[in-house]
Amino acid sequence: DAKERGRDNCVIYSAEMEHQVNTQLIIQNDLRDAIERHELELYYQPIVDEHGILSGAEALLRWRHPQYGFISPADFIPVAERFGLIDNLTRWVLKDVCEFVQQNAERELPKISINISARQFNDPKFVESLLVQIKGRQLTPRAFELELTEHLFLTDLSLIKARFTELQQAGFTIAIDDFGTGYSSLSYLQHLPLSRLKIDAAFVRNIGKGEKGKTLVKAIIEMAHAMKLDVVAEGVETEEQHTYLKSQQCDWFQGYMWSKPLPAAEFARLLPRAGEVRQLVSNIKPVQNEL
Ligand code: C2E
Ligand code: MG
Ligand code: MG
Ligand code: MG
User: Fold this and answer.
1) Which end of the chain is more exposed for a tag (fewer CB within 10 A), N or C?
2) 253 CA to middle of ligand 1, Å?
3) Non-local CB neighbours of 175 within 8 Å, separated by 6+ positions
4) What residues does ligand 1 touch, defined as CB less than 6 Å away?
């Protein structure tokens, strides 16, 4: 009867909650050592231009837990932020990207985009610590784009403005990630030295689902262009999405339609050596091992 079912539901619910709490505890405990244990790996997802030619890549963290298998960054990044581990992770990511760039110096490297957590902006030494790492390896900030989400705008605007200016003057370009899901308004963005807006995949997914979805994407692209920002579409999976985005002059594209995030060695094979013709990313076979 209903009472029985109610009780069952309650049991399922709390089991799920317990599972979540356990997951958080595991992440919290094990993430500290994940770096030393070489459980982290950086993948690269191509970003292409309107012809499908490789023009950039986003570095994305992967964690292979020895017992629990693959843990998504969507699960462990928030925990890292909460428990003060994000600085370490970002340092590791940047080190790994720098090594990748150095190891592939004979190839033509596109700009590499790195995700930065909003929290890190509160650290007054943040920009300096990035520069120490990059310049210590004789690399230039111009090789990198920093992706920041709109969660950033929950902190003090004048602080953000100062930090953005610092970054820009150092030579980094800056993109707003997951645009449209957060809290930013036109007036915020107007005053910041940005290069690109990344339209969140949720909007891209709605392109094939009626006129409203299209109208929203169109409005975002027009607004970005009016502010002299380039637009990157995230999570492009279908020809229909691609065609519509191109018809609206979207500048750059990222998504499974071209490639999933690739292990570094696989990504490196896409990079032309000096004098070689640039490849169309649409020639890549999709990676089979789902990550
Ligand atoms: P994000 O920065 O918005 O990254 C894009 C996410 O979309 C990635 O998920 C990517 O694998 C996924 N994606 C790309 N194209 C497609 C597509 O066509 N279809 C679908 N379904 N998904 C697509 P991922 O790698 O799981 O990362 C999730 C989030 O974790 C990232 O979202 C980012 O916020 C965070 N993250 C990942 N690596 C790092 C890192 O090194 N540092 C920080 N702070 N955050 C990171
Ligand atoms: Mg990103
Ligand atoms: Mg994103
Ligand atoms: Mg996202």
Assistant:
1) N
2) 14
3) 113, 145, 146, 147, 148, 194, 195, 196, 197, 198, 232
4) 45, 60-61, 72-74, 77, 93, 115-117, 147, 177-178, 201, 234-237, 254-256, 261
pTM reported for the whole predicted model: 0.91
Distance 60 CA to ligand 1 centre (A): 6
Tokens of 142: 């111009």
Which H or E element spans position 72? none
**Consecutive 10-residue averages of pLDDT for the chain (291 residues):** 49 67 85 94 97 96 93 94 94 98 94 94 91 97 95 82 95 94 74 94 94 94 94 96 97 96 96 81 54 47
Which residue out of 77, 91, 121 has the highest number of ligand 1 atoms within 8 Å of its CB and is therefore the one to mutate? 77
Nearest listed ligand to the Cα of residue 77? 1
Ligand 3 centroid to residue 47 C-alpha, Å:
12
CB distance 9 to 3 below 8 Å:
no
Q: Name beta bridge partners: 173.
A: 145
Cross-strand pairs, 59: 44, 114
DSSP string for 115-184: EE-GGGGG-TTHHHHHHHHHHHTT--GGGEEEEEEGGGGGS-HHHHHHHHHHHHHHT-EEEEEEETSSS-
Quickly count: other Cβ atoms within 10 Å of residue 90's Cβ: 22
Ligand 1 atom, smallest distance to 254 CA: 15
User: What angle separates helix 239-247 from helix 211-226, to the nearest 10 degrees?
Assistant: 40
Beta bridge partners of residue 159, listed in sequence order: none
Neighbours of ion ligand 3 (CB under 5 A): 177-178, 234
In ligand 1, the atom with minimum distance to the C-alpha of 257 is: 18
232 near 176, Cβ under 8 Å? no
